[in-house]
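From the shared-data thread, chain only:
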Amino acid sequence: MTEALPAPFKSGPGALAQALSAALVMACFLPVGRAEIDTRGAAIRLDLISEVRSIQPGKPFRVALRVHHEPGWHTYWRQPGIVGIPMALTWNLPEGFAAGPIQWPTPEKVKMGLLTAWGFRRDVLLLVEITPPRHLPADRVVTLRAKGAWMACSRTCHPGWGDFQLSLPVRDRSAPEWDPGHHPLFLKASEELPPGLEGWQATVRTDAEGKLRLRLHPSDPALAAPPESQWYFYAYTRHVHSDEPQPITLLPGGGIELTLSPFPIPEPVTDHLEGVIECSASLGPGEPHRFFVIRAPWQTPRLSPKAP
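Structure, as tokens:
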């Protein structure tokens, strides 16, 4: 276990610039092995774990970056909002191996100073599917390597970098050889991956004030927005301001409309607004989920935010 911890970076203007500058300096001094960041006994711990104890030729399997947060600390989601830097993994795999993208669990609202961002206070597994080649000799050991980068924040923010590696034997088996200590963690983490929102139609438009109007309408007559339910939207792209309120309007027919403030410097125009919608109440009998992925087509051309 090794440390990868630069000097503290305070939140506020210029914090991200500081972090990126430090990254250039730190990149040449990364230790190999499991990485840990720790600040006076309270920060985060990270390690790379596998769901299986061995690799089957040609059979995809899952690994994960396990992130433990000490109380008062958080890291960032795939799109952290107006502040923060998301977790990132850059893989260095043996020939013929391929790594999928991070499968992001449901986010939380976190605070960086006085600003609301999107991230994690709870412990999470960032799942990644690895696909080995079909023709892989058995009885050999394969080492998976990845460079990780992250930002951990509490009252101060600390960018961190580290090298991770994981070695697994290759065995020609007919069924996966689950790791008994890790497999239950992966099953639980799978439950935190938001499903698609079935039975609802999502649309988004830009009004004359530059606000984004995100609407959800039930396409199933048996569905309706639960009374007194609270809704919140986490965008995949830099189109929505994370530090502004999201007022809710109930619509006839059981739908809702969220009024979203645009990101200060938005990304280029896209055909759809994608992200995760959170509802405080169940959307139907037997529906255990509270977070859902939605993809809302733009109904009108996106307008640039009004100048202050």
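Residues 1-42 have pLDDT under 50 and may be disordered.
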